[in-house]
Amino acid sequence: MNKNHLLFAVFFSLMVFVEAVSAVGKQRIISTADNHSSASKPETTATISVDVTKGKKISDHLFGIFFEDLNYAADGGLYAELIQNRSFEYSPADRKGWNPLTAWEYTTDGFGYGAISVETTSPLNGNNPHYVVLIVEDEGQQGVGLTNSGFDGIVIRAGEKYDFSAFIRLISGQPIPFEIKLQDSKGEICGKATFTSDSNDWKNFTATITATQSNDSCHFVILAKGKGKFALDEVSLFPQKTFKGRTNGLRADLAQTIADLKPKFMRFPGGCLVHGDGLGNMYRWKNTIGPVEQRVEQRDIWNYHQSVGLGYFEYFQFCEDIGAKPLPVVPAAVSCQNSGGTWRIGGTGQRGLPPEEMQSYIQEILDLIEYANGSASTTWGAKRAKAGHPQPFNLEYIGIGNEDKQTPEFRERFKMIYNAVRAVHPEITIVGTVGPAPDGEDFDLGWKFAGENKVSMVDEHYYKEPSWFLKNLHRYDTYNREASHIYVGEYAAHDIDRKNTLRSALAEAAYMTSLERNGDVVGMASYAPLLAKSGNTQWIPDMIYFNNSSVMPSVNYYVQQLFGQNSGDQFVSNKVILSDAASKAADCLPVSVVRERNSGDLIIKLVNTLQTPVNAKINLKGTGFPDKIGTKAVLTGLPDDRISKPQITSIQVGKEFSIELPANSFTVIRLKTNK
Ligand code: AHR
Q1: SS3 state at 63
Q2: Where are the domains of the chain?
Q3: Which residues, listed in sequence order, are joined to residue 299 by a DSSP beta bridge?
Q4: Span from the CA of 250 to the centroid of ligand 1 (angstroms)
Q5: In the prediction, which pLDDT does 13 show?
Q6: Which atom of ligand 1 is nearest to the CA of 528?
Q7: Sign of dihedral through CA atoms 514, 516, 517, 519?
Q8: How far from 141 is each of 108, 110, 198, 315, CA to CA, in Å?
């Protein structure tokens, strides 16, 4: 064999090998698709008998949401403020390398010159100590000032209006004209406005910019166009188009995506954020109300900054706007047991507020209830009214503590708060905490403590692999109905690499059918976490991803949405008989049937966890059907799919009807019944 022959032989063998590998690959793909395809004949038959005359009352607010300022969920996320670090309060304590001028740049385009400094001697108020002082020695052709990058750029839409405001105090004598503008990355102006500052005291100036074009990565510029010296603070820019048009409001598209879940309650503001990284970092609700420039900003436990512009008033307002019951969680007067541990070396761990501070801390919690529910003539109700909401927010629930370690320090403080709230507000349901996991020491001790103190509801959390959810479909069947009820405050199926997959979403759907079946003892449940800004995540997986211009709900979102939009207040008795005994034994087809008393609608949820389709025969007993047409929503795909969406079609219904449940699918059938 000469050299050419040898080369040809090697090349030929390589080609044969590549062909063979690709054929095997093709075969594998085809066989997977075939396996999943609903064209193949269902091997399994399911008979589902539903008796509408039998069932039980279940919670009418079972599925809700849990909001925590994690993954840039608030600033740079749901909170619509476009300026980052608007009050110059960022610091290295928030994040290494950050300082009061983070996201800002001193701007002297057009050959102006002067000087910039950050000062604290005569602030706007003591809660907001840092401000910028600018000296303009020569304004040049364009002025001297500052540029803000926004949260990785500012998104604007042509023709829409943006409200600017800032506090300015003249230090030199003469009024100074200002120009504010939105500029794209090439320096082109996308909208501008002007005003003149004329006060030697701090004064709020406002102006409106109309965007002349759409752009996803603008920056904001404020320029002094005359010589002088002035102080600047709390520089803000808001789209006028916020959710429901609220001032100091929320990003409309993101808020609407949340509203579309039809959540029955909202837990806020955390999570770990509540008990905080050390005692000084606990979330204190009073710091988060009133004029935004007077709120007390602080480090976010997730390694960034909280402006608290989205504070307690805004949380309550949002709950009302989306028809969700508010469920605020306050610290149990102890800091997170991981304080300084996981995040920083040499930390304190769990610490309790000193005994001498407990009475005023308890009063702070009672004041929160008055702020939410008191009449406008009460001290705290008046503050709510002043913020624009004279009517109460109808608070029914309050959580005390989050996943706290069950130590004597925690228990002593929890009990003091719990007894005080119960004595003054027996109408409020208190939610206690039983640790971060579905079992273990804190879980057991937490439940024992809850039993001893007759806590009405406890908050269970679990982040587990999809198979755990499928194995635990009967977890609550045997829970004592006379003991504390359950709020599943945080859960999510964590698949390989913690990716959002259809596999994890179906495991959650299956589990949620078991929550409905146990809706007499499980009062509430919320997936966690809710939001994540792409490129700024500290925790995955999450329910809704977003960037500055788009919202990208995960496949898990659609499961939550189907449950939220199709909830009931009555669990209806049903029996599932599968032709394949092995599948039945393995709980492969979890089913839940609920009815919504007001509308009389009957809702059947079926999760096919099998890799093959199932032919389901549905027999309904005990009611008539005014409409012969119902709706059917089907979420399906391959287990690894990440972007499946439910397909909604109409379906012929009657006392008996059949439907095919695709492999790996979640199907929701909704039909009208005679009331
Ligand atoms: O949801 C993310 C975190 O998980 C929450 O802050 C905490 O409560 C839990 O450990």
Answers
A1: strand
A2: 1-40, 44-58+569-671, 104-239, 261-527
A3: 305
A4: 23
A5: 37
A6: 1
A7: positive
A8: 9, 5, 22, 45
Of how many residues is the chain composed? 675
68, 267, 459: residue to mutate for ligand 1 pocket, most atoms within 8 A of CB: 68
Residue type (1 letter), 95: R
Model confidence over 494-531: pLDDT tens digits?
999 999 999 999 999 999 999 999 999 999 999 999 99
Residue 174 CA to ligand 1 center (angstroms) comes to 53
Among 66, 69, 70, which is best to mutate for testing ligand 1, by the most ligand atoms less than 8 A from CB?
70
CA of 66, closest atom in ligand 1:
1
Superfamily of domain 261-527: Glycosidases (3.20.20.80)
Spell out where 297-349 has E strands. 298-300, 304-306, 325-330
Q: Residue 561 has which token pair? A: 């949405």
What is the fold of 44-58+569-671?
Immunoglobulin-like (2.60.40)
Q: For 469-496, b where at least 16 C-beta lie within 10 A, e where not — what string? A: bbebbebbeeeeeeebbbbbbbbbbbbe
The two three-digit tokens of residue 382, written as one number: 């008046």
Ligand 1 pocket by C-beta < 6 Å: which residues? 68, 70, 270-272, 402-403, 436, 490, 528-529, 539
Q: How far is the CA of 598 from the centre of ligand 1 (A)?
A: 36
CATH of domain 104-239: 2.60.120.260
Cα–ligand 1 centroid distance for 271 (angstroms): 5
Question: How many Å apart are CA 249 and CA 263, to the nearest integer?
Answer: 19
Q: How far is the CA of 329 from the centre of ligand 1 (A)?
A: 13
Question: Which positions are annotated as active-site residues?
Answer: 403
Mutation choice for ligand 1 from 65, 72, 402, CB with most ligand atoms inside 8 A: 402
Model confidence over 185-244: pLDDT tens digits?
999 999 999 999 999 999 999 999 999 999 999 999 999 999 999 999 999 999 999 999
Classify strands 325-330 and 265-268 as parallel, antiparallel or unpaired. Answer: parallel
